[in-house]
Design goal:
It is built from 7 helices and 7 strands, in the order βααβααααβββββα. It is an alpha+beta fold. The radius of gyration is 31 Å and the shape is elongated.
Length: about 240
């Protein structure tokens, strides 16, 4: 009866004339090399996982062949590459996701604080956050206050507010901006307020404009006679837009 082949001799066939490299081990190694693409986009993290699976299956096949099939080192290399590239790719994309989540949470918080300041008529506090070279900053505090007051005049007391959307978009100049749209419901008016944040060179987001308008739902419900004028933000069409 033939003795089993030890682990350290699995790459040396009992009869070299009939030795064959495990095809799956070769494929696993190739996929392991391609695992570096996991750093490109998050879904490609699946590539190193496939390399690990193929490598482990190859090791099992080689072990069961009794030395007829070789390629253990190739399979081990594939598993090692899969683990390394998978860890690097997964960690990289996880760090990006956590950073983006933190950015969105920070922008949501600042948006809510700014809307609360507007609702409390602390217009000067909001205006001071705007850059001096922004359209609303150049127009001055009184113009900013008048636009906001006209928008809310006659609307009654606050019923509720809700963040409707928040996204990060590139402008034609390549600058990243984040419009945060909030639905503000008053007794006799429904408004959509948009706060515009811009990514500065130092990596911080800065409030650069406040826009607002009465919604179509509000006009249909309460009528538009004597309704407020729109307050355009810095990236919206209007007298204050760029």
């Amino acid at each position: 009866m033939d003795e089993p082949v030890s682990e350290d001799r699995l790459d040396s066939a009992t009869d070299l004339e009939y030795a064959a490299v495990c095809p799956m081990a070769v494929v696993a190694l190739i996929v392991g090399v391609l695992g570096a693409t996991a750093l490109v986009v998050a879904p490609l993290v699946a590539v190193p996982v496939v390399a690990i699976v193929l490598g482990l299956v190859s090791l099992r096949t080689i072990r069961r062949s009794g030395g007829v099939v070789v390629g253990r080192r190739l399979a081990l290399a594939a598993v090692a590459l899969g683990v390394a590239t998978g860890a690097l790719g997964g960690g990289y994309h996880l760090s990006i996701w956590l950073g983006e989540r933190q950015t969105f949470e920070d922008l949501k918080r600042r948006s809510a604080e700014t809307i609360d300041a507007i609702l409390a008529s602390r217009h000067e506090e909001v205006f001071e956050k705007l850059p001096a070279d922004s359209p609303q900053g150049k127009a001055g505090l009184e113009s900013f206050r008048k636009g906001i007051c006209d928008l809310f005049e006659g609307g009654g007391s606050l019923v509720g507010r809700e963040l409707m959307s928040l996204q990060i978009l590139p402008t034609e100049r390549g600058v990243l901006v984040a419009p945060a749209a909030t639905r503000v419901t008053l007794d006799r008016r429904i408004l959509e307020m948009t706060l515009w944040f811009r990514l500065e060179e130092d990596g911080h987001w800065r409030l650069v404009g406040v826009g607002g308008q009465e919604t179509f739902e509000s006009i249909a419900k309460y009528g538009d006679e004597g309704g407020p004028a729109d307050v355009p933000g810095p990236y919206e069409r209007g007298p204050h837009s760029q």
